Amino acid sequence: xxxxxxxxxxxxxxxxxxxxxxxxxxxxxxxxxxxxxxxxxxxxxxxxxxxxxxxxxxxxxxxxxxxxxxxxxxxxxxxxxxxxxxxxxxxxxxxxxxxxxxxxxxxxxxxxxxxxxxxxxxxxxxxxxxxxxxxxxxxxxxxxxxxxxxxxxxxxxxxxxxxxxxxxxxxxxxxxxxxxxxxxxxxxxxxxxxxxxxxxxxxxxxxxxxxxxxxxxxxxxxxxxxxxxxxxxxxxxxxxxxxxxxxxxxxxxxxxxxxxxxxxxxxxxxxxxxxxxxxxxxxxxxxxxxxxxxxxxxxxxxxxxxxxxxxxxxxxxxxxxxxxxxxxxxxxxxxxxxxxxxxxxxxxxxxxxxxxxxxxxxxxxxxxxxxxxxxxxxxxxxxxxxxxxxxxxxxxxxxxxxxxxxxxxxxxxxxxxxxxxxxxxxxxxxxxxxxxxxxxxxxxxxxxxxxxxxxxxxxx
Length: 460
Fold this sequence. Notes:
It is a single chain. This protein is α+β, with helices and mostly antiparallel strands. Helices cover about 25% and strands about 25% of the residues. Strand 3 (about 75) and strand 4 form a beta hairpin. Helix 7 packs across helix 8. It starts with a strand and ends with a strand.
């Protein structure tokens, strides 16, 4: 396997020399300094994936099925069984390119960066190759082959991501090369091959995979940068510009965190306009919350709340050019230039609008009102009303919509021109906008509280 997109883990550096952390959140490394992914991380991701999306692995009451517990193991008090599947660590095969990204935490009440709210984290750049092995010992051969076929299909379809920040487009995998050996331990030849750790390739076709099910609402948005864009990345080289647009593996990108931050800010404005109550709590259940407590609501979460919105990291395919621009800071009292306040930045400028860039937004388990909220945000992105990135006050970051594919459950709508949407599609989408306008979110919040709250916090 190798990574098709950026991946990162939340675990601190491990080395024989007890090296100090490089960033606030480092990639896990082995004793040789090579990045690797623990088998436990992959096992946990797969267990959740099969439980969430396949009825064979979950019961109607929301509990794990016998099949899932049999494959991945389980424990209840002093009782339990070990997993029938053994996952090796994912070991790096090449010199993985590691980059440090910057992040900030925004104070939602005043709209600026929190005090001491800057942080950074390491990521593995696209193209890093990893190798790993999965061993499974089960009694039902056909069932095992069906599991393998499902796993292979879902990785190819990029339905499985691993590591931290997967909701920002990190951790996507692509299979480069794989092989399958099958050993029948009732057969003497197969037993010898297994003991010798020799290959015993399975040559036949794999069976039909399990049927995938998901209640995910998806928007695929094709757009171009209208004029210019900068999402700042700061170089340690003093000869370079003070800030430049962020790149990954030599390609200009728009990080998922920048898009998600803009979407969250616009969603807050929309809900304020609609006078929706309990916005802080509602946004925690929609965009996630990394805090284990929320004193504003007097609640205590059972761990962090994961975001239900997933956004890809956009690779800019549109032809753009990077140019340095000098700027100054003005003293508002005297009207003159502040001493030593000359700085430059290097945004990217649109060279043409021939090739579009693609943004994909997934919303898990939505209610109709949340879909309506996403549709209004899409409209604002499309109509140049929601800029992305930095220096928005001087006109940067404006997008122009070219096409959108909106899909949910058993329907899909293609919009090539936002001004000429058919009456049929308008009526279908209007249902969700009306749900947003009429929603009080009380029933939805009750379900979310039952899912995430552990207990009431003491009044302070």
